[in-house]
Design goal:
Ribosomal Protein L4, Chain: A, six-stranded mixed sheet, 16% strand, 26% helix, 10 strands
């Protein structure tokens, strides 16, 4: 059974607690990757060309002998065309409608009816979340992406969720040994390429994840800290815990979040249902 030290708001050690069974799960990187890819597929927005794009001109060309406005005997390709000018029985055509012509339709445009969604078994999804949670307690995994202190995982007393100032949150993170990590995520760079014009000009490094038990002031207090995210414990998923399908994110847990995870057996096959919680 994994244990962790609980830190006070002053950064001192209060006591040690036994972590719930979710932290003892075997780390399965393939399953984590599968769950992350499913989440990314389901978040894709469907897109496609306008249904009438390139089909709006009245373009037609007859290939029959002696047909009025036909192309028979003209020595031109059998491409649908629109008439730009006429002089008696002579016509000036311009290619239209067909793929490969100016203003014509695309041969195989992206279609909005295409579905990107994917499914994953409920037990697999829960197991992937447990596996990602277990990886957050292993220093070898967490140190790949983050600059971490010796004490992993990091659990802070319940008063942590009552902080309502960004400065208070930052000071606490410094006190529990995350100075190097805050310096790492302070780096902000301009993205190379066209992404600069597509509402993603800057590249920001992924920092610690703060996990809380319920909506509180801490959510707004930590919002202005670059690279830091906040999540409710019941809303955790494989992508939040393992960004890019790489397990081992640095997580700062509140004591109440850990207690809630163990009490309600979140992400296990014996998870307490919502109806039972309401009672």
């Amino acid at each position: 059974m994994t244990t962790a030290k609980i830190f006070s708001l002053q950064g001192t050690e209060l006591k040690s607690i036994s972590l719930p069974e979710q932290f003892d799960e075997e780390i399965n990187q393939d399953l984590i990757k599968r769950a992350v890819l499913v989440l990314q597929q389901n978040s894709r927005q469907r897109y496609g060309a306008f249904e009438e794009a390139g089909k709006r001109p009245s373009a037609k060309l007859s290939k029959r002998r002696r047909d009025y406005r036909g192309s028979y005997g003209k020595g031109i390709s059998r491409v649908s065309r629109k008439i730009m000018w006429k002089r008696g029985s002579q016509f000036g055509w311009e290619g239209a409608f067909s793929p490969g012509t100016k203003g014509g339709r695309k041969a195989h445009p992206p279609k909005p009816e295409k579905l990107f969604s994917a499914k994953i078994n409920k037990k697999e999804k829960r197991k992937s979340i447990r596996s990602a949670i277990a990886a957050t307690a292993v220093k070898d995994f967490v140190s790949v992406r983050h600059k971490v202190p010796n004490h992993i995982p990091i659990v802070v007393e319940s008063k942590f969720e009552s902080l309502n100032k960004t400065k208070q949150v930052k000071d606490l993170l410094l006190k529990i040994g995350l100075k190097d990590e805050l310096e790492r995520i302070s780096d902000k760079r301009i993205r190379a390429g066209k992404g600069k014009t597509r509402n993603r000009k800057y590249k920001i490094k992924r920092g610690p994840l703060i996990v809380i038990s319920d909506h509180c002031f801490l959510e707004k207090a930590s919002r202005n800290l670059q690279g830091i995210e906040t999540s409710l414990v019941e809303n955790l998923n494989a992508e939040v815990l393992a960004p890019g399908a790489i397990p081992g994110r640095l997580v700062v847990w509140s004591e109440t979040a850990i207690t809630k995870m163990g009490k309600e057996k979140l992400f296990t096959n014996n998870q307490v249902k919502k109806e039972e919680k309401a009672k």
